[in-house]
Amino acid sequence: METARTRPVSDYNSKLKLKGFNAFQIGGDSNATRIYSRKDFYKICLSTGTSIIHYADRSFVAEGTVLFFGNPRVPYSWETVSSTCVGYACLFSEEFLNVSERADMLQQSPFFKIGGTPILNITEQQKDFLATIFLKMMEEQEGEYAYKDDLVRSYINLIMHEAMKLQPTESYDQHKNAASRITSVFLDLLERQFPVESPDKPLQLRSPQDYAQNLSLHINYLNRAVKEVTGKPTTAHIAERIINEARALLQHTDWNIADIAYALGFEYPSYFNNYFKRLTGTNPMSLRTAEV
Question: Which residues pair with 174 in a beta bridge?
Fold first, then answer.
């Protein structure tokens, strides 16, 4: 059996990661509203149909045309109710927008901010205007204009400016089973930290407090919900996922132990070695040697 040393990604993912941006039309079958959920891309979606959008611990009823802002740091899912859901979407990385001097809009926007409201109800006139911007982005990404990335960034900023003029929707409900929803959101966010694809991009969320802050929850509330639903504390879920990723990196990459330790959020390799041995009964190098 051939041992892989790198993690394969699809052609679609590779192109998106290379360019840092992609705009596309949502087809009538509604599948495009949920085909992409990578943790490192923001999403803006103009959608017409009836859907229920689950965002962190809230659920939004989206009827008619809505403008949705997806933050990769907040787990969300899209449940289509109507038979069709059409519109446009664009995905972009933080690095793509950071070239712009106005990139701080991303963090300051109430739509991308943790705990913000990411959905706007859109009138027919606003829909026509926003659809034109999405079409322009789709046209530019296929063109040969030397400064098309700058132009696309301007279009993204224009959408965000237009959105900030509007009132966010208040059509949302807390999940009927709050503990279940909070646990689902936590586990989704935990999984979004993986796979670790580069030592240069270490884990950002290591502790229950990190997850609670990202979800705008009190740490006690998160811990109580996770323990109630799964029977295991939040720390146990995090530790298990980190150990599983450590095993994968040891077995399927040629990174040295120091790189793996840093990628998993450990300041020193010795801390990683002790952590790994305490939870698995063996040390990282022994596991790697055994796999050779």
Answer: 58
How many angstroms separate the CA atoms of 199 and 65, rounded? 41
Q: What is the CATH topology of the domain spanning 11-173?
A: Jelly Rolls (2.60.120)
Structure tokens at 161: 């400016």
Model-level pTM greater than 0.90?
A: no
Give the residue ranges of DSSP H helices in the chain.
11-19, 94-98, 105-108, 124-141, 148-164, 178-192, 208-214, 219-230, 234-252, 257-263, 269-280, 284-291
185, 11, 207: which is closest to 115 by C-alpha?
185
Distances (CA, A) of 42 to 125, 223, 231: 25, 28, 33
List, for residues 132-179, the tens digit of each pLDDT value: 999 999 999 988 899 999 999 999 989 988 888 886 555 444 445 778
Which regions of the chain carry the CATH code 1.10.10.60?
176-291
Residues 6+ apart with CB under 8 A from 123: 65
CATH number of the domain at 176-291, please?
1.10.10.60
**Which amino acid is present at 98?**
N
